[in-house]
Each structure stands twice: as C-alpha cells, then as structure tokens.
C-alpha cells in the first residue's frame, strides 16, 4: 500500500565534480520525493547522473565530487547535514543500497556469509553465531539453493546472478525502509534479470519498504514500479504515476524515449533523437534538453523551465506546458 | 583437523612449497635437537685436530681452532633462525599498523610517517645495521631489534601503497554504504586485502635477515666470536680458503643458502595458499 507520508525528499540537489577541465555539473537542481511503500523507477540514459544521485542520497560522494547544494530529507532528517558517524546509523540500516557489478562490491577475501553477518553485526547487538544464522536465513530468502553451503563460499566462486543475490541479501539484512537498487540487474542475462527483479519486488512488498529503482530499462519500470521519474542531465524532467506516463508521456524527451521502444510506439510521428546528452561541463542556459528538442522555442534557450504541476502527482519540466498550468500555479510553489 | 588436511593437501600439490616446508622443518629440528644431533659441543676446541678435512669423525671437517664444523653448523641454526623469525615478526608488527594508519589517515600524519621512512631507507642498510648494533651492543636481542627497525619501513611502504589503492575499490565503498565502522573497514576490508605483497616480502626478508646477521658477524659486529653462528664461521674460515681448507667456510655458507631458499619457497606457497581465489 502506498501511504501518503513522504519518506524521502530530495530538494534542489546539486552535485558537482571539480575536474581539471572545469566543473562538471552532474546533478543540478534535482527534485524528487518517495512516499512510503512506493516503488519509484528512475530512468535516464548513461551519464544522466543516476548513480551520482544515489551516492548523494547516502552522502558518499567523494572528492573531486561534492554535494554543493540541496537537501536530502529522510523522515524529517537532512542526511547531508549529518556527520559520518551519525550517517552510519542510516546506511545499511535505514537505507539499503544494491549496486551494479555485484562481484566488485564484495570483499574477495571474506566468505559471503560472513560479509552479510558483518553488516548485520554493525547495526544489531547480537553475537557472531546469531549473525551467521541470520546471514544464512537471508541467503535462503533471496532464493539461494543450498544456502548453508553457499554462505561458506567466496565471491569468486559464485556466478554473477548468485553474487547479485548476495548483494540483495546484504542490502536487506537490516530490513531497511528504503531500498535503492542502482542498476541491480546490469550485466546479468535476461532470465536472471527477471528473477532478480521479481525477488526485489517480492521482498520490498513483504517488508513494506519503499524503493528507488535506477535503470535504463523502461520495460522494467512499466512492470514493477508505481511511479516513474525521467532523468536528463542531472535533472528530473518528468515524474508521475507509471500508468499515466505510459498512456501519455508529456516531456518531449520522454516521448522520444518511448518511441525508441519498437513495440510501444505511441505516436505515428517519428521523432529523430539527434545528438547526445549535453556535456555536464558546459550545460546550456535555459532548458537542458534544448539541444535535441524538436519543439524548441526561444524561451527554452533563455529561461530554465520550472517543474510544472500538470495533473494529480504529475510533474513535467517543460515550457510547452506553461500555458496549460498557468492558472494552477507551478509545482514548485505547491511543493514548498 | 580439517584445516590441517586442507593444508597438507595443498602442500603436496605445490612442489616448491613442499621443499620449502621440508627445509624449514629440518632447520627447526636441528635447532631444537642440536645437542643430540651434533656429535661435539659447538665451542669444544681440540687443538691437535685443527684444520682436518671432512672425514668419518668430523664429516664437515674442523676449523682453525679444532672445532667440529658440523656441530657448529647445527648449533648455529638456533641463533640464526631465532634472529630471522623474530626480527621479521617484529618488523611486521611495527610496519603493518603504521602503514595502514598512514594510508587511512592521509594528510599530515601520513606525510610525516612516510618522510621518516624515507630517511631510514636513505641510509645504506648495512651501515645502519652496524651503527644500531654498536649503539645497542652486540647480542642476539639487539640484532633482532636492528633487523626489525631496518625492515619496518619496507612493510610500511608496501601496506600503505596497497591500502591506498584498495581504499578506492567498490567493495570498500559498499562496506561504507552498509554502515560499517572505520575500525571494521580497516581490519576486515583494507588490511586482509593489502597483505599479499607484504607476505612475499616477509618470506624473502626472513632469508635476508639471516644474511644480515651473518654479515654483521662476519665483520665482528654481530654475535661474539666463539658462539656458533653461520656468518662468523664463514669469517673465521675465510682466510683458510686460500690455503685450500675450504670446508670451514663452505658448509655454513651452504646452510645459509638452503635456509634462505626454504623460507622463500615456503613464503611463496603461503601467499598462494592464503589467497582464496587461487587455491
């Protein structure tokens, strides 16, 4: 059940990377909120800042990267204001992170059972034996055959799918309220992908947690999520319920994305996707999508569009919808 | 028991490791049972039997003062192996934690420790060893301290450079994102993954410590003369080589060579054995 309470709210997040070439504005002015029990899919092409957003949420952006502005409010607490020590109570306990490339995220010298047990030990006052039993139980829960024996295995002895299951077990061992899956099925074959997705969904539903699913697969979002957010150049350009989005996407970029799926062409018109993402080193003034937008207007080149509230829970960041919403007031005002 | 069986199985599959293990075992047995194995006391000089070539009574011959070379070679394992093992262990105990801390807390602390290591390593090793031993006084305990002191910067550097690169690995980042504490990340993630090159170096240094001890004794700064020690035995025998009595230097030299080889082979095996990916 989707509650009405907001669990996580990201306000005006800016994460920059200070490089020799200049300032790379990977995330700039990102707005996003996740309600309790909601499963939000964040979609965007490579380099649009999805992973950096996930890292910013747990405040793990390292030099040369830095969160320069914004708030990440989790249950009323701004995570960006906490010290490392205070953050530890949230990481892994309140917010679980499943990363892509599972094998690389596991310590090669520690048995996977012990790795899960260690994460459990870090947040619970239990002894080693209890933690180990919990780890085996978690492995069983993520559908690992012969969990008792598998817990004794080292990461290199596992297949990609098994390692990913271990990562999920690791992220869920403390029953977090928010699960962030950052491209969790990357590099797995299609059958395993769907198993892993089913597993994540199943567990999120069982534990009543919320989830952010970061992916570039629209199909996965259509199947699993209740809400969708489209990311482009470090901004959310469109956000709304999945059904409404797939019925009629608003933002020109979203329309293009959907058109790219052959089986789901929603309009007869064929829109060419020209060019690529604007470089985060030199973002244009105005709308970030102006370089590729077929409907680009003069105003797009000068003024950055604000997040417009076009329908119930439905926001889009585009000047095309300006007139339609003028009498409603902008979404930003409503959010504030 | 299971561990023991696993160990012996791996050892039998690795020929080099097996030979190394055998050499170390024989050396240890020599050290423990020296008085039983050796037919004579190590410092028992029979003047009329001096400079005898190897024969049935003295299988390695006798030296200038008439001491039995075989008995002395056997007894010397006690001193040389003690110095090698404890010297290396002590330097590991000093070097690893400092290297780990220097890498974990980069910045000023890391800089200062590394510059101190630079200074220590800028000295020629042997000269520094001579200086240390002559300041502290030449006995076994001080030679161990000197060896630890000389080797510690090497381990420090190894551990530091490894930790610096491992710090950036995704699994360390993942551990942090899972809320693990600093200490746990240091000792569960960083340290075990950074010990590989240190293990190799330690096994080589074990042999190197014996050579250094021998070198110190050779110039008279090590173990005092009548005491059986390979280096000083070579020193005593060296002038005799010219006159054809090669045995009193040759056998202790061979003993050093074999022991060093044994430690190096076993160290190499140990490195593979402890790495779960290559077992």
From TrEMBL, chain A:
**Which SUPFAM superfamilies has this protein been placed in?**
P-loop containing nucleoside triphosphate hydrolases
Q: Which PANTHER family does this UniProt record tie to the protein?
A: NICKEL ABC TRANSPORTER, ATP-BINDING PROTEIN (PTHR43297:SF13), OLIGOPEPTIDE TRANSPORT ATP-BINDING PROTEIN APPD (PTHR43297)
Q: What topology does it adopt in the membrane?
A: Peripheral membrane protein
Q: Could you state one GO cellular component term attached to this entry?
A: plasma membrane
User: CDD domains of this UniProt entry?
Assistant: ABC_NikE_OppD_transporters
> Would you tell me the protein name for this molecule?
Nickel import system ATP-binding protein NikD
Q: Does the keyword Transcription regulation apply?
A: no
Pfam families reported in the protein's UniProt record: ABC_tran (PF00005), oligo_HPY (PF08352)
User: What is the annotated quaternary arrangement, including any partners?
Assistant: The complex is composed of two ATP-binding proteins (NikD and NikE), two transmembrane proteins (NikB and NikC) and a solute-binding protein (NikA).
> Keyword Cell membrane, does the record have it?
yes
Instruction: Give the record's GO biological process terms.
Output: peptide transport
**A GO molecular function held by the record:** ATP binding
The ABC transporter domain, residue ranges: 8-258
EC numbers listed for it are 7.2.2.11
Keywords assigned:
ATP-binding, Cell membrane, Ion transport, Membrane, Nickel, Nickel transport, Nucleotide-binding, Translocase, Transport
Which family is this protein grouped under?
A: Belongs to the ABC transporter superfamily.
**Gene3D superfamilies in the record:** P-loop containing nucleotide triphosphate hydrolases (3.40.50.300)
Question: From which source organism is this entry?
Answer: Peribacillus cavernae
């Amino acid at each position: 059940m989707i509650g009405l309470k907001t669990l996580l709210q990201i306000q005006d997040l800016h994460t920059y990377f200070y490089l020799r070439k200049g300032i790379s504005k990977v995330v700039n002015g990102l707005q996003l909120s996740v309600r309790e029990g909601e499963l939000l899919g964040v979609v965007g092409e490579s380099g649009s800042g999805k992973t950096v957003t996930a890292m910013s949420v747990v405040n793990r952006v390292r030099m040369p990267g830095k969160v320069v502005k914004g708030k990440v409010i989790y249950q009323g607490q701004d995570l960006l204001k906490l010290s490392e020590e205070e953050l530890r109570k949230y990481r892994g306990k309140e917010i679980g992170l499943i990363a892509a490339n599972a094998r690389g995220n596991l310590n090669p010298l520690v048995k996977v059972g012990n790795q899960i047990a260690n994460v459990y030990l870090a947040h619970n006052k239990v002894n080693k034996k209890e933690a180990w039993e919990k780890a085996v139980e978690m492995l069983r829960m993520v559908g690992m055959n012969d969990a008792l024996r598998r817990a004794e295995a080292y990461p290199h002895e596992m297949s990609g799918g098994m390692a990913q299951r271990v990562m999920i077990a690791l992220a869920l061992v403390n029953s977090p309220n928010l699960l962030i899956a950052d491209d969790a099925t990357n590099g797995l074959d299609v059958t395993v992908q769907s198993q892993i997705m089913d597993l994540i969904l199943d567990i999120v539903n069982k534990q009543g947690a919320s989830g952010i699913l970061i992916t570039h697969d629209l199909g996965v979002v259509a199947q699993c999520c209740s809400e969708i957010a489209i990311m482009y150049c470090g901004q959310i350009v469109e956000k709304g319920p999945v059904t409404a989005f797939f019925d009629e996407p608003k933002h020109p970029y979203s329309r293009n994305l959907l058109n790219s799926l052959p089986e789901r062409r929603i309009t007869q018109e064929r829109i060419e996707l020209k060019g690529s993402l604007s470089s985060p080193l030199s973002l244009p003034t105005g709308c970030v999508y102006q370089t590729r937008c077929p409907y680009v207007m003069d105003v797009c080149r000068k003024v950055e569009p604000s997040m417009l509230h076009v329908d119930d829970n439905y926001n889009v960041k585009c000047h095309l919808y300006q007139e339609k919403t003028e009498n409603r007031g902008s979404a930003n005002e409503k959010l504030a | 028991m299971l561990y023991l069986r696993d160990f012996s199985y791996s050892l039998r599959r690795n020929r080099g490791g097996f030979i190394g293990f055998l050499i170390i075992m024989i050396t240890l047995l020599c050290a423990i049972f020296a008085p039983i194995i050796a037919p004579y006391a190590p410092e028992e000089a029979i003047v009329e039997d001096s400079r005898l070539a190897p024969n049935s009574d003295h299988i390695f011959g006798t030296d200038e003062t008439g001491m039995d070379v075989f008995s002395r070679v056997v007894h010397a394992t006690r001193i040389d192996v003690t110095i090698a093992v404890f010297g290396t262990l002590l330097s590991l105990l000093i070097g690893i934690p400092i290297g780990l801390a220097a890498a974990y807390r980069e910045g000023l602390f890391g800089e200062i420790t590394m510059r101190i290591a630079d200074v220590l390593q800028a000295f020629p090793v042997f000269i520094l060893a001579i200086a240390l031993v002559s300041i502290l006084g030449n006995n076994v305990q001080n030679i161990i301290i000197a060896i630890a002191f000389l080797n510690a910067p090497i381990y420090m550097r190894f551990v530091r450079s490894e930790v610096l690169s491992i710090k950036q690995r995704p699994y360390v980042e993942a551990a942090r994102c899972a809320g693990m504490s600093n200490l746990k990340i240091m000792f569960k993630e960083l340290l075990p993954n950074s010990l590989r090159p240190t293990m190799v170096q330690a096994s080589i240094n074990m042999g190197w410590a014996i050579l250094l001890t021998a070198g110190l004794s050779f110039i008279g700064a090590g173990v005092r003369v009548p005491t059986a020690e390979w280096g000083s035995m070579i020193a005593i025998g060296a002038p005799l080589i010219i006159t054809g009595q090669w045995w009193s230097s040759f056998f202790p030299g061979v003993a050093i060579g074999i022991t060093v080889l044994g430690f190096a082979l076993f160290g190499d095996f140990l490195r593979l054995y402890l790495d779960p990916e290559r077992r």
